[in-house]
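Person: I keep going back and forth on a fold encoding question. Show me how you would write down a chain together with its backbone fold. Please set it down just below, with no commentary around it:
Helper:
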Amino acid sequence: MTPLRVSSLDADCLLLSNQAKLEAKLESSHAAIISKLDPAFSYHTPTQECLVAKDGDETCTNLYVEIPADFANGKTVTGTLKVGPAVTSIGRSAFAYTGVTELDISEATALQTIGDYAFYSNTELTGTLKVGPAVTSIGRYAFGHTGLTELDISDATALTTIETNAFYNSPLAGLTFALQNISDYAFYSNTELTGTLKVGPAVTSIGDYAFLYTDLKELDISEATALTTIGDWAFSYNAQLTGTLKVGPAVTSIGAYAFRDTKLTGINLYEATALQTIGNYAFYNNAQLTGTLKVGPAVTSIGYDAFRDTDLTGLDLSDATALQTIGDGAFFGTPLSGQTVLKADGTSIRLT
C-alpha cells in the first residue's frame, strides 16, 4: 500500500481517523518532514491525535468528523487515502481532481454520506470500493471519471440512494449490492460493467437510464420481491444482455425503452400480478425474444411499439381483465402482426 503523500497541506489539516495511525508523510513550509509510519508512540485527546517521532519531535493533527467541501482544493494529494471510524461525512468535491490511487474506508464505520463530486476525476483511483453498513447515500458524480473496477455494497445495509451519475464513466466490471433505490443515471455509460446483475429483496426501484449503455450479460430480479418500478431506458442498449426476464409480484411498471436493443430471449410475467403498464418501446428490437407473452390481470396498457421487432409467437390475454389499450405497432414486425387474438372479455383485437 503506497502511503498518502500530501504536499503544501498544513500538518493540522489531514487526519481522517481518530483510532488508526496516520499512514502518511507530511510536508509543509513550517514543519519538518516527519515519517508517521514508524513513530516512537502516539496518543489521543478528544480533538487530536499526536505522534511523537523517535527524535522527540511531536506533531498533533486535528480529528475530522466531517470532512468539509473542497477539503483538498488546491492541494496535491496522492497515494492511499484511509478514512477512519470517526468520520461521518465526506463533503462535496472534498477530494476531486486529486491523485488518490486507493481509497480504504474499511474502518469508516460511522461514515454516512459521500457527497457530490467527492472523488470526481481521480483517474488513478482503482480497485474495489467496499462501502460500509452506515453509509446512506453516495452523491452525484461522487466517483465519476475514476478508475474503480468494482463496487461492493453488499454490506451497505443502510444505503438507500446512489445519486445520478455517481459512477459516471468509471470502468466498473463488478457490482454487488443490497440497497433500496437505484437512482436515475446511477451507472449510466459504465461500458465495462459486465457479468450478472442480481437485484436483491430490498430494492424498490431502478431509475431512469440507471444501466443505459452498460455491458451486462444477465439480469436476475427473481428475488427482487420489493421492486415496484423499472424506469425509462433502464437497461437499454445492453447489447449482450440475454436470458429470460422474470418479473416479480411487486412490479407495477416497466418504463419506456426499458429493455430496448438487448438480446433477451424470453419474458416471464406469470408472477407479475401487480404489473399495470408496459411502456412505449419497452422491448423494442429484441430480435431473439420469442415464445408466448402471457399478460396478467392488472395490466391496463401495453405501449405503442412495445414489442416491435421481437420474435414473439403467441399472446395470451385470457387473464388480462384490466387491459384497456394496446398501442399502435405494439407487435409490429413480429409473427403476431396482423393476427386477431381474444381478450379476456371474449371480444377480439387485431394486432398491429
